[in-house]
Amino acid sequence: MSEAAVKKASVGRNPRNLILAVVAILLAFAAGGGMYVWKMKHSAKSPQAVVAASPFNLPLPTMMATLDSDSGHASFVRVTAQLQLASEQDAGVVRQKFPQIEDLFQTYLHDTRPDELSGSGIYRLREALFAQISNVLAPVSLRDLFFTELLVQ
């Protein structure tokens, strides 16, 4: 073997290079851990911010409607619902729009047959009303719509 090949082979086994590599790896892990701790410490929200961002449930008045019927037999539905808003400050704006929201419920329910409210029909009812109410309340953020009572007679 030539002298250059021997030097090249011995460079990889030099203890100084090994120590430098270990130190570099330890520094990289320490920097990563430090960044993680710093990010967790500075991204923690204050308890006041969490309370202010909590959603607000606004109950709607109970509504009754006559369902569409092919047989001529009258069927009635009674619905009680709640709107989940982003904050309590939006409740005043929503209360002013209760007549429009009630009209949406009445219009949708008058075009619904009793058999459409069984099974996944309640989910379709919720999704359709949620989309329409969201449009009426446009700048106000509607998070969810809950049915607390749905009685079909």
Overview of this protein structure:
- The chain has 153 residues and is an alpha+beta fold.
- The chain is 52% helix and 20% strand.
- Strands 1, 2, 3 and 4 form a four-stranded antiparallel beta sheet that branches.
- β2 and β3 (75-85) form a beta hairpin.
- α5 packs antiparallel against α6 (121-136).
- It is elongated, with a radius of gyration of 32 Å.
- It starts with a helix and ends with a strand.
Assembly context of the chains:
single chain
Question: In DSSP terms, counting alpha (H) and pi (I) runs of 4 or more, how many helices?
Answer: 6
Helix content: 40-55%
Which term fits the overall shape? elongated
N-to-C CA distance = 99 Å
Note the beta-strand portion.
15-25%
**SSE order in H/E notation?**
HHHEEEHHHE
Rg over alpha carbons: 32 Å
Mean pLDDT: 81
What ranges have pLDDT less than 50 throughout 5 or more consecutive residues? none
Number of strands: 4
Secondary structure layout:
Elements: H1 3-11, H2 15-43, H3 47-52, E1 56-59, E2 63-67, E3 75-85, H4 91-96, H5 98-110, H6 121-136, E4 142-152
Antiparallel strand pairs: 1-3, 2-3, 3-4
Give a short summary of the structure.
With 153 residues, the chain is α+β, with helices and mostly antiparallel strands. It has helices at residues 3-11, 15-43, 47-52, 91-96, 98-110, 121-136; strands at residues 56-59, 63-67, 75-85, 142-152. The chain has six helices and four strands; from the N terminus they run H-H-H-E-E-E-H-H-H-E.
Main traits of this protein?
single chain, 153 residues, alpha+beta, four-stranded antiparallel beta sheet, 6 helices, 4 strands
